[in-house]
Design a protein that fits this description.
The structure holds 3 protein chains of 3 kinds. By secondary structure, chain A is mostly helical. Chain A has 2 domains: about 1-85, Up-down Bundle (Four Helix Bundle (Hemerythrin (Met), subunit A)), CATH 1.20.120; about 120-170. Chain A has helices at about 5-25, 30-50, 50-75, 90-110, 125-130, 135-155. Chain C is mainly α. The chains are: A mainly alpha, B mainly alpha, C mainly alpha.
Chain lengths: ~170, ~625, ~100
C-alpha cells in the first residue's frame, strides 16, 4: 500500500470520526471540537490532492474562524441550556433517509464511469493567476457578498431602540 | 344621393328630427327660458305640421313614388343595419294625424298644466313622445321601428306616471309599461324570426321576399302572430288592453295624446304596415278580425257601465281600436287608417273636452257627480256633443264615413254574420257615448263642483274648437273629388270608394237607435237604467269589474308567477346555494382543516420530505 | 495509489453524515454545523475532480477556484446564520428546532 494512500486513510479517519462526533455527541462543545477535527482532516485531504493553498485556507477559515464563531455563538446563547442535548423525534427517519441517500450515491458512483486521469497539481501561483485574471469579477462579487452578509448579520443581531429588554444583555 | 331638403317629401325626415331635438333642449335649457321652454316643443311640432303639408302636397301632385332615405348605421360583413326613412302614403296620413293632434294637445297643455311644479319636464316629455311616434311611422326597417317603438313606450310610461308622487299614477305607469312590454317581446321575437328568414330588416324587402315565396308559411304565420302581439299590446287589444283604462292616471291632455295620436295608433300603424305579410296567411287575417271584433264588443260593454268619464272614454278607445283591427283584418287598410284619423280627432276632442270639465270642477271625473253642465259651459258642451256624435257615427260627421267604409269591407270580406255583430257593436258604441254625454251635460247639477263649473279659458277652448271643425269636415275627404279619389283610394292607391245604400241606411238607423235608447234611459229617464242593471245582474257586475280581467291577471301573478318564483327561490336557496355553493365551500374548508395538519412548521420535517423527494427523483430518473 | 473514487466515497459519507445531522439534531447550532459538514463534503468532491479530472486547456485551476468561492459563501452564510440564531435566542429563549414552528398549519 503506497504511503500516500495510508496518509489518505488517516485523513479520512480524521474527517469521518469528526463528522460522526458532530452528529452523535450529546455535548454541544464536543460537537464543536469534533467539527474542528473534521476540518483539519479535510485540510489533510486537500494537501493530498496537492492543494496547499486550500489546505491553508481550510485551517485558517474553518479551523480558526468558523469553529471559534460557533463557540462564541454557544457562549452567547447560554451554553448551560444545551449541556445535555438530545436528538429530535425524527431521528430514525433521518437515519433511513441518509443511509438511503448514501446507498444511492454509491450506486450512482458504480453506474457512472469516472475519469481516470493522472493526478495533476495546480501550484499556488497558477491558482492566484487564475483567480485574479479569469475570475477577477466573481472574486470581487464574492467579497461584496461577504460585506453584505456582515452588514446583514450586524443588522439582524443589533438591538433595536424599541426592543424590549428580555434576553441576556451579553 | 343628394337631398334637396326643402322639396316636399324630402323634408319629411325633419318632422321627427325637430321634435326629438326639442326634447333635450327643453329639458336642459328650458328652465332658463320664459315659460320654462314650453314653446320649444310647440314650435317644433308646429314646424312639423307645416312640413307635413309640403309632404302631402308632394304626394297629391303626383310625386307618388315613396321616398326612401337610407343611412348606414352598422355594417358587419355581409349584412348591414341602416337608419332609413320611408315616406309613403300610410306614413303621410300618420304624420298629419300625429303632428296635428300633438300640436293642439301641447297648446292646450299650456293652460291646463299651468302651475305644475314639473312644467318644463312635461313639455320636454311631450316632445320626446311625439318625436318617437313620428320616428315609428317613418322608419323603413323593423329594427329602427322597434327602437322608436320602445321610445314611445318610454314616453308613455313617463307621461302616465307624470304625477308619480301619486301612488296610483306610478302603479298605472308601471302597468302600462309592463303590459305593453309583453307585446313588445313578441314583436322583437317576430322581428328576429323575420330577420333570420330573410337576412334584412327592411320592411319592403321582407314583404317582397315573402310574397315571392321566400319564407315558409309557418314562419310567416309565427312572425306575424308575434308582431300582432306587439301591436295588441300597444293598441290595447284584448287581452292586453288592461293598461289603457289605468293610463287615465296621467294628465288628461296626455290621455288625449295617447288615445288619439301616439301610443295606441302605433299598433294599428304597425299592423297596417305589415298587412301585406299578414295577408299571405288567411288564418292570420282571421285572428286579426276576431281579436278586433271581440275587443270592439267587449270593451263597448264595459264602457256602458263605467261611471268615470275618462274610463268610459278609455274603454271606448279600446273598442274602436278593435274596430280598426277588424278593418285591417278584412284587408281594408285605408278604411282602418281613416278610422284611426277620424277616431283620433274625435277622441282627442272628447278628452280635451273632459279635461275642460275636470279643470273647472276640481278634477271631478265621476259623471254621476256632475250633470247639468251644458248651461255652465256651453261651448264645451257643444263640442263634446259633436265629438260624441262623430264617435257614434252620425252623418254627416266624419265618424260616419269611416265607420261606413269599415262596414262595407266587413260585409264584403266576411259576410253577413260578422256584419251583424259589428253593427251591434256600433249600437253599443252609440249607446255609451250618448250615456256619457247625457249624464254629464244634461239634467241637474248633482254636486257643488258641478254647480260651480265655469267655461274654460280661451287657450283651452281654441284647440278643442279646432279639433271640432276638423271632426265635422274631415269626413268629406272620403268622397272622391276630381283628381282626388277619396281617402282610402289615396292610401291604397286603387279606387275603392263605393256605397252600399241599404247598408248606409241600416248602419245610420242603428246608430240613431242607440242614441235614442240612450236618451230614453239617461236623458228623459223614461226607462230606468237601474232596473235594467238589476235585470242584467251578472253581466252588469262583470262589466263593472272589466270582466275580471285584472283580477285574473292579479291571480295569475300572485298564484302562478309569484308562487313559482318562490318555489324557484327555495330551490335556489337550498339546492344551488346551500348545497352547490356553500356545500363546496364547506367541503374545501373541511378538507383544508385536515390537509393543513401536513404543515407541521418543523424544519426537519420539511428537510426529510425534501431529501426523500431527491431520492425519489433520482430513482425515477434511473428507472425511466 | 489514491484515485478519484476515494475522494468521492469520502465525500458521500461525509455528505450523508451532514444530512443526518440536519434532519436529526435538535439544536439549530448543530444543524448549522451539519450544514458545514455537507459543504465540506462538496469541497472534497470538487478537489477530487480537480486533481484527477482531465478538463484540458487552461481550466486546470477551476476546481480550486470554485472551492475558494464555496468557502467564501459558506463563511458569509455562517455569519448570517449565527446572527439569526442569536436573534432567535433573544426573542424566544430557545434555539430548538422543535419549538420553532411558526409555519404550523
Amino acid at each position: 500500500m503506497p504511503g500516500s494512500l495510508i496518509l489518505f486513510y488517516v485523513a479520512a479517519a480524521f474527517v469521518l470520526s469528526g463528522g460522526i462526533g458532530v452528529v452523535v455527541s450529546k455535548n454541544i462543545v464536543y460537537c464543536a471540537f469534533s467539527l474542528l477535527v473534521s476540518m483539519i482532516g479535510i485540510a489533510g485531504v486537500f494537501l493530498l490532492a496537492f492543494a496547499e493553498f486550500l489546505a491553508l485556507v481550510q485551517i485558517l477559515i474553518y479551523g480558526g474562524a468558523v469553529v471559534i464563531v460557533i463557540l462564541f455563538a454557544l457562549m452567547l446563547t447560554r451554553i448551560e441550556d444545551f449541556r445535555d442535548i438530545s436528538d429530535n423525534r425524527n431521528r430514525p427517519l433521518a437515519l433511513v433517509i441518509s443511509l438511503g441517500l448514501l446507498a444511492m450515491l454509491i450506486a450512482s458512483l458504480v453506474r457512472t464511469p469516472t475519469p481516470q486521469g493522472d493526478q495533476s497539481a495546480v501550484s499556488m501561483v497558477e491558482l492566484g493567476e487564475s483567480l485574479f485574471t479569469d475570475w477577477a469579477i466573481p472574486f470581487e462579487v464574492a467579497s461584496l457578498v461577504l460585506l453584505v452578509a456582515l452588514v446583514g448579520a450586524i443588522v439582524i443581531v443589533r438591538r433595536d431602540a424599541g426592543d424590549e429588554e428580555q434576553g441576556d444583555p451579553s | 344621393m343628394s337631398i334637396d331638403i326643402f322639396a316636399g317629401s324630402n323634408a319629411a325626415w325633419l318632422i321627427p328630427a325637430l321634435s326629438v331635438l326639442a326634447f333635450p333642449i327643453t329639458l336642459f335649457l328650458g328652465r332658463f327660458l320664459p315659460g320654462k321652454g314650453s314653446f320649444i316643443p310647440i314650435v317644433a311640432i308646429a314646424a312639423g305640421f307645416i312640413l307635413f303639408w309640403f309632404v302631402l302636397s308632394d304626394f297629391l301632385s303626383g310625386g307618388s313614388v315613396p321616398l326612401h332615405v337610407d343611412i348606414e348605421w352598422i355594417n358587419i360583413g355581409f349584412w348591414e343595419i341602416t337608419w332609413g326613412f320611408l315616406v309613403d302614403r300610410i306614413s303621410v296620413v300618420m304624420l298629419g294625424l300625429i303632428t296635428f293632434v300633438a300640436l293642439l294637445v301641447q297648446v292646450y297643455s299650456l293652460q291646463y298644466m299651468k302651475g305644475d311644479s314639473r312644467y318644463g319636464w312635461y313639455f320636454s316629455l311631450h316632445a320626446l313622445f311625439a318625436g318617437s311616434m313620428l320616428l315609428v311611422v317613418l322608419a323603413d326597417n323593423l329594427l329602427f321601428l322597434y327602437f322608436a317603438w320602445e321610445l314611445v313606450g318610454l314616453g308613455s310610461y313617463l307621461l302616465i306616471g307624470f304625477w308619480f308622487d301619486r301612488r296610483s299614477a306610478a302603479e298605472a305607469a308601471k302597468k302600462a309599461f309592463i303590459t305593453t312590454r309583453i307585446g313588445d317581446v313578441g314583436l322583437l321575437i317576430g322581428i328576429i324570426i323575420l330577420f333570420k328568414a330573410t337576412g334584412t330588416f327592411h320592411i319592403s324587402s321582407i314583404i317582397h321576399v315573402a310574397q315571392n315565396g321566400g319564407i315558409s308559411d309557418s314562419t310567416i304565420m309565427w312572425s306575424s302572430l308575434l308582431i300582432f302581439l306587439g301591436a295588441m299590446g300597444k293598441s290595447g287589444q284584448f287581452p292586453l288592453h288592461v293598461w289603457l283604462p289605468d293610463a287615465m292616471e296621467g294628465p288628461t291632455p296626455v290621455s288625449a295624446l295617447i288615445h288619439a295620436a301616439t301610443m295606441v295608433a302605433a299598433g294599428v300603424y304597425l299592423v297596417a304596415r305589415m298587412m301585406p305579410l299578414f295577408a299571405l296567411v288567411p288564418e292570420m287575417q282571421l285572428i286579426v278580425v276576431i281579436t278586433g271584433l271581440f275587443t270592439f264588443i267587449f270593451a263597448g260593454f264595459i264602457a256602458l257601465v263605467m261611471t268615470d268619464m275618462k274610463r268610459i272614454l278609455a274603454y271606448s278607445t279600446i273598442s274602436h281600436l278593435g274596430l280598426m283591427m277588424l278593418s285591417i283584418g278584412t284587408g281594408a287598410v285605408g278604411a282602418a287608417l281613416f278610422h284611426l284619423v277620424v277616431h283620433g280627432i274625435s277622441k282627442a276632442l272628447l278628452f280635451l273636452g273632459a279635461g275642460n270639465v275636470m279643470h273647472s270642477t276640481n278634477d271631478e271625473t265621476d259623471c254621476w257627480r256632475l250633470g247639468g253642465l251644458k248651461s255652465k259651459m256651453p261651448i264645451t258642451a257643444g263640442i263634446f256633443l259633436i265629438g260624441s256624435l262623430s264617435l257614434a257615427g252620425i252623418a254627416p260627421l266624419s265618424g260616419f264615413f269611416s265607420k261606413d267604409e269599415i262596414l262595407n269591407s266587413v260585409y264584403q270580406e266576411m259576410g253577413l254574420g260578422f256584419l251583424i255583430v259589428t253593427l251591434a257593436g256600433g249600437f253599443i258604441s252609440a249607446l255609451y257615448i250618448a250615456r256619457l254625454f247625457l249624464i254629464t251635460f244634461t239634467g241637474t247639477s248633482r254636486t257643488d263642483a258641478a254647480k260651480n263649473a265655469h267655461e274654460s279659458p280661451v287657450l283651452m277652448l281654441f284647440p278643442v274648437v279646432m279639433l271640432t271643425i276638423v271632426a265635422i269636415f274631415l269626413g268629406m275627404v272620403a268622397i272622391p273629388m276630381g283628381e282626388f279619389k277619396g281617402f282610402t283610394s289615396f292610401v291604397e292607391q286603387e279606387s275603392k270608394f263605393h256605397i252600399i245604400p241599404w247598408l248606409l241606411v241600416v248602419s245610420l238607423s242603428i246608430t240613431i237607435l242607440g242614441v235614442v235608447v240612450g236618451w230614453l234611459y239617461y236623458g228623459k229617464s223614461r226607462l230606468s237604467h237601474k232596473s235594467m242593471a238589476l235585470r242584467l245582474g251578472f253581466m252588469y257586475k262583470g262589466a263593472l269589474k272589466g270582466f275580471w280581467i285584472d283580477a285574473i291577471y292579479q291571480f295569475v301573478i300572485d298564484r302562478i308567477v309569484l308562487e313559482s318564483g318562490r318555489l324557484i327561490a327555495t330551490f335556489d336557496r337550498i339546492v344551488i346555494n346551500d348545497t352547490g355553493i356553500d356545500g363546496s365551500a364547506k367541503s374545501v374548508l373541511l378538507s383544508a382543516l385536515k390537509v393543513r395538519l401536513i404543515q407541521t412548521g418543523k424544519i426537519y420535517n420539511y428537510g426529510t420530505a425534501m431529501a426523500f423527494g431527491v431520492f425519489l427523483a433520482v430513482i425515477v430518473w434511473w428507472v425511466f | 495509489m489514491i484515485s478519484l473514487a476515494h475522494f468521492q466515497v469520502l465525500a458521500y459519507i461525509l455528505f450523508c453524515l451532514g444530512i443526518y445531522g440536519v434532519l436529526a439534531r435538535k439544536s439549530t447550532v448543530l444543524v448549522l454545523m451539519s450544514i458545514e459538514l455537507m459543504l465540506n463534503a462538496v469541497n472534497i468532491n470538487l478537489i477530487g475532480y480537480s486533481a484527477f479530472g482531465s478538463f484540458g486547456g487552461s481550466h486546470t485551476a477551476l476546481g480550486q477556484v470554485i472551492i475558494v468561492f464555496v468557502i467564501t459563501i459558506a463563511a458569509a452564510e455562517l455569519a448570517l446564520a449565527i446572527a439569526i440564531i442569536l436573534r432567535l435566542y433573544r426573542e424566544r429563549r430557545s434555539v430548538n428546532v422543535d419549538e420553532i414552528d411558526l409555519l404550523k398549519g
